[in-house]
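> call design_seq(struct)
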């Protein structure tokens, strides 16, 4: 929703493989956004690329990793390091090998937390397109799911008072890196979070801009999200999700100017987050 491009990493010690992969993927798009390709020739170089986003949700959406590089298992060691030592559960890791006998598919899939396996012979343009497309979609889901769950978790642990829940929600939103630690030139965060008529936090939008966007989208016939008055309105790349909240006019709402029309699965995630926060506020003590 807030990306300008998708960051893809190719890890291989064969320059020809990297060049062919670059050519094959040069015109790929996902949700209408282009790819930004990174390359590495070893486990160490790949970890340096990942270290550009050292915390939170890594910017690399998909990585294609050769098995045999500086050692016979360098690629697999890289996957294990990313998952276990660096805690990266977000990037979609696809292992590819020119020597499948050295790393049988079932053995690799059973032992390592990877998202796919294929041989270099299978690495056609269509195959790469399929993996990039599916990988980015899953990466987006992972990022949004982790972000919205963080909002709910912080609201739950804030305490029993309504003011504490609202304050935790505000602080989480204001400090929320919607796409993790991707470079600023790769993202465009324009969003606002409302409780009633109060803007709790805005990213990339002034209070006036957020309110104007909310007012404009409020005039659009919203689509139902359940049977309790929850709705969302979407116009092009703008989005408004609203959940009724007791005496607060307008309820609790999330408004955004996005870089692409978010898929319904992401809309559902944000709705569940708003619903959870609304429920906590209603149950909290004054």
């Amino acid at each position: 929703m807030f990306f300008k491009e998708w960051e893809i990493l190719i890890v291989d010690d064969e320059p020809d493989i990297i060049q062919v992969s670059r050519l094959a993927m040069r015109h790929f798009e996902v949700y209408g956004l282009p790819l930004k390709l990174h390359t590495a020739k070893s486990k160490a170089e790949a970890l340096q690329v990942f270290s550009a986003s050292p915390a939170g949700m890594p910017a690399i959406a998909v990585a294609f990793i050769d098995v045999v590089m500086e050692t016979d298992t360098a690629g697999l060691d890289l996957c294990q390091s990313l998952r276990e030592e660096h805690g990266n559960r977000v990037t979609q890791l696809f292992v590819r090998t020119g020597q499948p006998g050295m790393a049988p598919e079932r053995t690799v899939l059973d032992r390592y937390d990877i998202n796919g396996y294929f041989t270099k012979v299978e690495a056609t343009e269509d195959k790469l397109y399929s993996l990039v497309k599916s990988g980015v979609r899953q990466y987006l889901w992972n990022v949004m799911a982790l972000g919205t769950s963080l909002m709910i978790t912080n609201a739950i642990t804030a305490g029993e008072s309504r003011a504490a829940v609202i304050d935790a929600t505000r602080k989480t939103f204001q400090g929320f890196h919607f796409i993790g630690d991707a470079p600023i030139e790769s993202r465009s965060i324009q969003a606002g979070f409302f409780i009633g008529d109060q803007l709790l936090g805005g990213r990339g939008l002034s209070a006036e801009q957020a309110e104007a966007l909310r007012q404009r989208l409020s005039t659009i016939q919203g689509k139902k999200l359940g049977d309790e008055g929850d709705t969302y309105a979407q116009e092009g790349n703008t989005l408004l999700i609203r959940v009724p909240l007791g005496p607060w006019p307008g309820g609790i709402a999330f408004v955004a100017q996005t870089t692409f029309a978010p898929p319904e699965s992401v809309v559902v995630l944000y709705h569940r987050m708003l619903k959870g926060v609304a429920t906590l506020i209603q149950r909290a003590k004054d």
